[in-house]
Specification:
mainly alpha, 95 residues, two-stranded antiparallel sheet, 65% helix
Length: 95
């Protein structure tokens, strides 16, 4: 996650608090079925940005977004399946 080109670590405390609020909105929207929010939440979870790093949960959200045709989520889930990150390694499903 970046803001105006700055990485998460370079954000001020106030900006980090804003990102936490953004993640809460993504969580709500992801639960409502919005693929873009599912993907963004998956990225936050995969990188540990504003939330604890959780690749299992990230894979779950990438799968949900991918099932709706969100290409970036499909790609990320495929990479995770190929390497066994957050999911059981499954090269067949990854392809």
């Amino acid at each position: 996650l970046t803001r105006e080109g700055r990485a998460w670590a370079a954000l001020s405390k106030e900006e980090c608090n804003e990102m936490v609020a953004v993640i809460a909105l993504w969580q709500w929207a992801a639960n409502e079925g919005y693929a873009n929010a599912q993907y963004n939440l998956g990225m936050a979870l995969m990188k540990g940005r504003g939330v604890a790093k959780d690749k299992v949960e990230a894979a779950k959200w990438f799968r949900k977004a991918g099932e709706q045709g969100y290409a970036n989520a499909q790609h990320n889930l495929g990479v995770m399946l190929m390497s066994g990150q957050g999911v059981a390694k499954n090269e067949t499903e990854a392809a």
